[in-house]
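Hi C.,

You asked whether I'd gotten around to modeling the 151-residue construct. I have! Everything is below, sequence then structure, no commentary in between.
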Amino acid sequence: MVSWVTHELLGADFHDLRLTERLLRIVERFAARPAASIPHIGDTKAEAAATYRFFANPAVTVDAILQPHRLRTAQRAAEHPLVLVAQDTTEINLTTHDDTAGLGYLSDPQSHGLLLHNLLCISPAGVPLGVLDQRAWVRPKDERGKRRTRN
């Protein structure tokens, strides 16, 4: 039996089958422990290190990961005469982390982190069909390197 992860993400193209296999293992682990961070999705430190290496690989991009999911999302959307696409922006507040160099301000100018924009495809009945796009970005700091404040 093929797992939902394999069905959803098989076809991710990193130009290396080992990276695709690693992606499937990582997503399976996150699915089993959805609230866990990378150090806690696996059972060993070696698994966490392998996960960090995977995401640090230049061939691993958001677009490469999302491409097969986008295809499956489009297939599910084609089953409906109408779909909705909801846009959401989430703030990821990293103010309390030690190494936050380069991160801009959030809605509170004293907080810094990044913004995550998602486009979610939804059926008219409210059933999520998948993520169509996802982009992360940071607001720029002013020329003095300080976080901007609101007027």
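If it helps when you're writing up: Helices lie at 4-9, 17-32, 38-41, 45-56, 62-77.

Thanks,
B.
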